Amino acid sequence: LRIVNVVGARPNFMKMAPIIEAMNRYPERIRHILVHTGQHYDEKMSRAFFNDLGMPRPDIDLEVGSGSHAEQTARIMVEFEKVCLREKPDLVIVVGDVNSTMACTITAKKLGIRVAHVEAGLRSRDMNMPEEINRLCTDVLCDYLFTTDRFANENLRNEGVPEKKIFFVGNVMIDTLLKHREMASRLNLMDQWGLEPGKYATLTLHRPSNVDDRATLEGILEALSEIARDLPIVFPIHPRTRKMVEQFGLSHRLSNGNQVRGIWVTEPLGYLEFLHLNMNARMVLTDSGGLQEETTVLGVPCITLRENTERPITCEEGTNVIVGNRKENILAAARKVLQGGISQGKVPEKWDGKAAERIVKALLAVEDL
Ligand code: UD1
User: Fold this and answer.
1) Which atom of ligand 1 is nearest to the CA of 40?
2) Residue 298 — φ and ψ, nearest 5°?
3) Which structural domains are found in the chain, ordered by start?
4) Looking at this predicted complex, what is its ipTM?
5) What is the pLDDT of residues 225-280, one digit of tens each?
6) Residue minimizing CA distance to atom 28 of ligand 1
7) Beta bridge partners of 304
8) Which regions of the chain does DSSP assign to beta strands (E)?
9) Which pLDDT score is estimated for 10?
10) Average pLDDT over the chain, rounded to whole?
11) Measured in angstroms, how far is the CA atom of residue 67 from the centroid of ligand 1?
C-alpha cells in the first residue's frame, strides 16, 4: 500500500505524527511518504514542531507559502498534482481542516486516487469560517472518514454518508498529547515569567473573525487586560495576529516580551513548551479548535472566543465554554472560572491514545492487502 501523507499547517503536525508512527509498525505492508505543502513556513510555526514531535522530515516540501485563499489553494493543487502523478499512491491521507487538507483532497480525487480524512465530520455550521468550507468539501469527496466523536458520526450520517465509509476511531491529537504529557510536565518554563502553577492563564488568538476587524480585536484586548489584572496571561502570538495588531496600531496594548498589565507576549511556542504551560494553567482562552480538545483531556477550563464550535463534545463532556468575542462575555466567563464555576468534565470516548493505531488497522483491513 503506497500512501502519501499530507501536512500543511501547524495543527496538522501533531495529528499526523502518531499516524506515521503507527504506519511504521507495518513496514512490509505500508510504504509512505510525507508531503508538507509549506502553508506554514516560519521556523516557529513549522520546523520546531517536527523536532518536538520526533517526526520525520517531510520527503517533499511544496513551499507554497501564504496568499489569498484562492492563491494558496490553487498553488497547493498545482504542486500536489505533480507529486501524485510522480508517486502514484494508492491512498492520500489528509488531516484537519486547513486549506492544504481541502486542496490535496480535490487534487487526488480528480486523479482517481482514494483519500482518507482524519478528523472528519466536524461541523460548526458557520460558512463564514474558511475551515467549515474546507471540511465540507473534503468530507464529501473522501473515501474513508475517520471521526473523533459521536457528533461527527451523526453529522456525516445526516449528510447521507454511507455507514461503511465512517470509522469512529477517536482523536489522534490526543494520542500525541498523552504521549508527550509526561515529558512536558518535566519542563520548567514558569520561572522566566515569574509564574506559579494554577496562577496564570494561557491565550491563543488567530481566527480572522477575531483579529481581522479592528473594533473586535480591540474589545478582546481590553477584556484580556482586565483579566490580566487578577491573573497573568501568557500569549504566544500567531503571525497573522501580530500582523493585524501592528496594522491596527494596537501594539501599545501588547508590547513584545515585556510585561504590560500582566500579559506576556511571546513568539509561537513549541509543542512541549505550550503543553507544559496549558497543563498548569488556571484557564485557557482561545479561538483554536485543537485547544478545546486538549484542555478537555487536561481538565483545564477553556474559554472559547468564538460564536460556535465544531467540537461540541468539549462543551457537553469536557471543560469548554463558548463565549463569543464580546468584552463583557469574555470577562464574565473568566470571573466564573476564577470562582470555581466550570467543572472538570470527563474525557470523551476513545480519546485514549490509540486512535492512530485504529486508523492504520482499519485501512489495512479495507484496503485488503
Ligand atoms: C491556518 C488555518 C487555520 C488554523 C491555523 C493554525 C486555513 C484556512 N487556516 O490559519 O485553520 O487554525 O492555520 O495556525 O487553512 N503566516 C506567517 N508565517 C507562517 C504562516 C502564516 O507569517 O508560517 C502569516 C502570513 O501573513 C499569512 C497569515 O499568517 O498570510 C495567514 O496564514 P494562513 O496559512 O493563510 O492561515 P492561518 O491564519 O495561519
Assistant:
1) 23
2) -75, -15
3) 2-171+351-366 (3.40.50.2000), 181-338 (3.40.50.2000)
4) 0.95
5) 999 988 999 999 999 999 999 999 998 888 644 555 589 999 999 999 999 999 99
6) 240
7) 286, 322
8) 2-7, 31-36, 60-61, 91-95, 114-120, 144-147, 166-168, 201-203, 233-236, 259-260, 263-266, 283-286, 302-304, 320-322
9) 96
10) 95
11) 9
